Amino acid sequence: MSQNSNLFLSIGKQVKDEYGRVTGKIASFAVTPRGKFEEVFVERGDGKFSKHSVDYLKVDGSEITLLSKIKSDACILCDHIPLIWRKDQALGELHAKKKIDPELYKQLHSAFDGALVQLRSEAQAVQAETEKEISRCLEEIKALSYAVVHIEIEHEIGKMDDQSYGTAFSIIQDNLKKINIEKSDLEVTKNKLSNTLLGDKPAFPEKPPSKPIESTSKASSSVYTSPELPEPPVVVYVKEIGKTGI
C-alpha cells in the first residue's frame, strides 16, 4: 500500500479480510527511523495479536482491509517468473546473434537461472500453502453444511422457534457464501501458479459464481453447500413412559 502520514489515525479501527469478515482491530504500527510504515499489529477477536506487512493493508476511507498474503505473493511470483524467463530467452538470442560477449552472457545467464530457481521454489511453497487453505475451506464448508442440517431438523420437530431458526440460518448462510468465494479465489490462485510453473502465464479467469440451492424452509432463500456433504446423522428423541418429553 502507499505510505500515508495519517495511517496512525486508523488505530483502533476494525479490520476485515477481502470477504468482509472481521479479523480484529488495528493496535499499532512498526515504523522505521525514516518514518516508513513497515508492519501493522492487529488485535484479533480472541485477544491475541498478529503482525502483517503494511503491503497487505488496504485503506479506503473508513474501510480497512487486510489482503490475502497468499494471493498477493502468488500474483507477484506469476509476474516475475515469466518476465525473468523472457529476459533469459532474449539474452540467449542476443548471444546466438553474437551481439553480446560470451563471458558476459555466461554471467547474466547464470544470474537469471539462479533467480528462476529461487522464484520457482518460492512459488511451489506458496502453492502448497494454497492447497492447505483450500482444504481448510472445504472442512469449514462441510461443518457449516452440517450446522444447516441440524437447525433444519430442530426447526422441523418444533424444538427451535422461527425467530431463532431465521437468525441461525442467516448467519450460517452468510458464512457459507463467503467461504465458497474464498475457496474459488484460492483455486484460481493455485491454477495460475501451476500454469506459471509449467511455463505459461495466463490471465486470471473470471470467478464462477457460487450456485445456491433452494432451502425447503420458509425462513430461508438459498444456502451454499458442499457437493461432498455426507449423510447427516439421524437424531432420535425418545420419550420415556411416565416422564415428560426431552
Quick synopsis:
Helices cover 48% and strands 15% of the residues. With 246 residues, the chain is of the alpha+beta class.
Can you describe this structure?
The chain contains three helices and eight strands, in the order ββββββαααββ. The protein is α+β, with helices and mostly antiparallel strands and 246 residues long. It has two domains: 7-67, Roll (SH3 type barrels); 72-223, no CATH class. The strands form three sheets. It has a four-stranded antiparallel β-sheet, with no helix packed on it. The chain has a two-stranded antiparallel sheet with strand order 5-6. β5 (57-60) and β6 form a beta hairpin. It is elongated and about 85 Å long. The protein starts with 13 loop residues before the first strand and ends in a 23-residue tail after the last strand.
